[in-house]
Design a protein that fits this description.
The complex is a heterodimer of chains A (496) and B (290). Chain A is α/β, with parallel strands linked by helices. Chain A has 23 helices and ten strands. Classes of the chains: A alpha/beta (496), B alpha/beta (290).
Chain lengths: 496, 290
């Protein structure tokens, strides 16, 4: 007996030690655009190659979400640009701040920054190489000599203070034929000759594809957007090896390489993983299962999001609805509160949950939970208030205690309305849960987001169709449940 | 007396066993511990209204009424609509609380502590029956008895017994209210009110929505039953003929006050006012018809 106890204790100690000795995986995040996802994959594969466990939560969203996730400790690393750090994350920083100055300002926040990876991805102007050669244009200053050129810029570039307005002022550009248009359309307009110059990102895959020349920003109007990895300083203490791997990537990715990788994903439809592996000289990783496998995986994630949030909502909303029906004034407050929750834009709701729950499934479940409350509370309230007062009085005069009246009379009579509320919540939930992919919750939103990013209709449908099917299934399921649960006496319209 | 009421409320509240078995015997005799106390209130009227007033907003529904209803007597509350007769019945069931005055049931003031137990000793039937549409006839009948701990077999036995009494075909016990005729529904409502064999029946226009043939048939059955069961019955009706047929005492209400209180013969022979005379005139045809 004593031997057994010692054995068990020893085993437990070993497990504990082994567990403590295995560092948790390095968590990498990326923004919802191709280049960021590729850089995230490069970091993950390179760490993996060096024997360091790493996970990549891809396409988490915009700068704010990634920055907050990093500060909050939900991720350890993500790729960022120095220009963005200066302009958005540390807005008090002077424009020409050096890397050392940036590091000094990041340090008190617990954040570190690797050396630049090599390439810059900044705003630039571009035009077709052949025409540029003919007109002898290689810098933005050269445009001054050609006042009748047609310019077409992305709408954001037209509006931004540091975009066209500043450019025009600093370079004293004389062109008057200037139009705003969609960024993707601008490339086609350029190819067709409708416009001659457009704004672009220096690593755009379209630059080599359309044979464009990037005009040199000889007066340095655009801030430097040098790619770096931002990481949590506690990662450096926890896993110095991981940091060494990241730092080792510094200076190894030049503009041409990044352009090629973006083109391979966007134009040739290669996976980010395959592209990253090719860059690192690793064998192409096995593809991530077939369509069925992917569907099953996402269905599972989606069902977990919807199921847990809906289940929790029912547990809270039913009593709230009952309370609201019983006490009028409290009812008004409850309905108003859940109504306000419903008016929060869904995307904002998901983002609001991040400081509370981090990123991943939890904040998505919390957001969906809040969205599910109103339909259930409202229908529970309406169902209970809609009961014929004569029936309530009959039950009361019988001398039944309140809880028996509630369980045996009121809830069964309100059941149809309550079920309809749950059904509404479920259907809304299935659709809204696709937004969960924005904050790393997976599900059907994942291929939709990637599909939008890559302009790949097939990928969008791979998420949208199952989501629609699931919504229909949920609807059908609840309607069947409603039929099965409605006693014969309530099915016909009755006079009572 | 007050102490007895308190004890009774206490006993009911803290001895669920008593509540479960107490109504076993006929005529609402309660559990052993309480039986002795009940004797102390046995000579009190079943119901007493002491200066009861009730108004809805500006309109006065019951204007300072004091009445006593003796045990075993069938009383009809009559009057035109708005005279306060339904309000009076609802005050007796505790669905309404009086603004002033006191309602006493079985010698005890009807308050929050005694209300639920008191109600289990009242059978209540309303115009449309108030049957629960989501439960079968048997489901409607069993609701309160099952809560009080009756076995299914016992509920069924009692239901069959009552079905015979109200002449409801036993096969209908499994039907839903929506599958019954209006007369059948009122019979079921009556059965539900009688399940625990309460000493009191409160009937609020129980036959008001029925066609004349079913109505007169049920009136006869009710009359037989009242005679047989020896219950304290309060019947609200706007039909003087029905009141005269079923009740030995008529209370005619007008504008929330008692206009006249007596037997049908007294009301007819010496009406207290022209209103009483005119009200009775509307029903003269039935008792005088061949």
């Amino acid at each position: 007996m004593r031997l057994l106890l010692a054995l068990v204790l020893g085993l437990a100690c070993m497990v504990a030690v082994a567990y403590a000795a295995t560092p948790p995986p390095v968590r990498i995040g990326s923004k919802a655009f191709t280049e960021s996802v590729v850089l995230g994959e490069i970091a993950r594969l390179d760490l993996h190659e060096h024997g360091i466990d790493a996970v990549h939560r891809r396409s988490l969203g915009g700068t704010r979400i990634l920055w907050r996730a990093l500060r909050h400790g939900d991720i350890d690393v993500y790729p960022e640009y120095t220009g963005t750090i200066v302009q958005e994350l540390l807005p008090d920083t002077p424009r020409g701040a050096s890397l050392a100055q940036l590091r000094a300002r990041l340090k008190p926040l617990g954040i570190g920054m690797t050396a630049p990876l090599g390439f810059e991805d900044s705003y630039a102007l571009g035009m077709r190489t052949r025409l540029a050669q003919k007109l002898g244009i290689s810098t933005i200053s050269d445009l001054r000599a050609h006042p009748d050129l047609a310019l077409g810029f992305s709408n954001e570039f037209m509006d931004r203070e540091d975009g066209w307005k500043r450019l025009k002022r600093v370079y004293r550009l004389p062109q008057t034929d200037v139009r705003g248009m969609d960024h993707a359309l601008a490339y086609r307009a350029l190819a067709s000759g409708a416009i001659v110059v457009t704004d672009l990102y220096t690593t755009d895959a379209e630059i080599p594809y359309y044979h464009l020349r990037v005009l040199r920003d000889d007066r340095h109007v655009f801030p430097a957007y040098r790619a770096v990895y931002l990481y949590r300083l506690d990662l450096a203490q926890r896993d110095p090896g991981a940091l060494a791997v990241l730092e080792h990537l510094a200076g190894r990715i030049d503009v041409a390489a990044m352009q090629r990788m973006n083109a391979a994903v966007k134009l040739d439809h290669a996976s980010e993983t395959a592209v990253a592996a090719r860059f690192l000289g690793l064998p192409a990783p096995a593809t991530r299962g077939g369509l069925v496998h992917r569907l099953l995986l996402r269905s599972g994630q989606h069902l977990i999001l919807v199921g847990i949030s809906l289940g929790l909502a029912i547990v809270l909303a039913l009593p709230l609805g009952i309370v609201a029906a019983r006490w009028q004034r409290l009812g008004h407050a409850v309905m108003a509160l859940t109504g306000v929750l419903q008016t929060v834009p869904s995307l904002a709701m998901f983002v609001f949950m991040i400081p509370l729950f981090g990123i991943g499934a939890e904040p998505a479940i919390a957001a969906l939970f809040f969205y599910s409350l109103l339909p259930i509370v409202r229908n529970t309230h309406a169902g209970l208030r809609g009961i014929d007062p004569a029936l309530l009085e009959s039950a009361a005069v019988m001398g039944l205690p309140a809880h028996v009246r509630l369980l045996q009379v009121e809830l069964p009579l309100a059941r149809r309305s309550i079920l309809a509320g749950i059904k509404t919540a479920a259907v809304i939930n299935v659709g809204t849960a696709t937004l969960g992919a924005l904050i790393g919750a997976g599900g059907y939103g994942q291929p939709i987001l990637t599909g939008i990013r890559l302009d790949d209709l097939g990928l969008i449908l791979e998420g949208a169709i199952p989501a629609a099917v699931l919504a229909l299934v949920a609807q059908g399921l609840f309607e069947a449940l409603e039929r099965a649960w409605t006693p014969r006496g309530l099915r016909r319209r009755t006079v009572h | 007396m007050d102490e007895i009421c308190r004890n009774r409320a206490y006993a009911w509240r803290w001895r669920p066993g008593a509540a479960a078995h107490g109504y076993d015997a006929r005529m609402g005799a309660r559990g052993r511990k309480i039986t002795g106390e009940a004797a102390d209130t046995a000579d009190a009227p079943m119901f007493e209204l002491l200066g009861v007033r009730k108004h809805y907003g500006d309109s006065i529904a019951v204007d300072g009424i004091s009445l006593a209803f003796a045990r075993g007597v069938v009383t009809a509350l009559i009057g035109s609509s708005g005279s306060g007769k339904s309000t009076l019945l609802r005050l007796l069931t505790g669905l309404l609380r009086p603004d002033a005055g006191e309602v006493r049931f079985d010698g005890c003031s009807l308050d929050a502590a005694t209300l639920r137990q008191a109600r289990q000793r009242m059978g209540y039937v309303i115009q449309e029956g108030g049957l629960f549409p989501h439960r079968t006839v048997l489901g409607n009948l069993s609701l309160l008895p099952v809560h009080l701990g009756w076995s299914g077999a016992r509920v069924l036995e009692r239901a069959r017994e009552l079905a015979v009494r109200v002449q409801l075909p036993e096969a209908l016990l499994q039907r839903y209210p929506s599958e019954l005729s209006g007369g059948q529904r009122q019979r079921v409502a009556l059965m539900r009110a009688l399940m625990l064999d309460p000493p009191v029946l409160l009937l609020d226009e129980p036959l008001g929505a029925l066609d004349p043939i079913v109505r007169s048939e049920l009136q006869e059955q009710l009359a037989d039953m009242f005679a047989e069961l020896d219950k304290t019955v309060l019947l609200v009706t706007h039909d003087v003929a029905e009141a005269a047929w079923l009740a030995s005492r008529l209370v005619l209400l007008r504008d929330g006050r008692v206009e006249q209180d007596g037997s049908f013969a007294q009301l007819r022979q010496s009406p207290a006012s022209t209103h009483v005379r005119r009200f009775l005139a509307s029903a003269r045809s039935l008792p005088e018809a061949p």
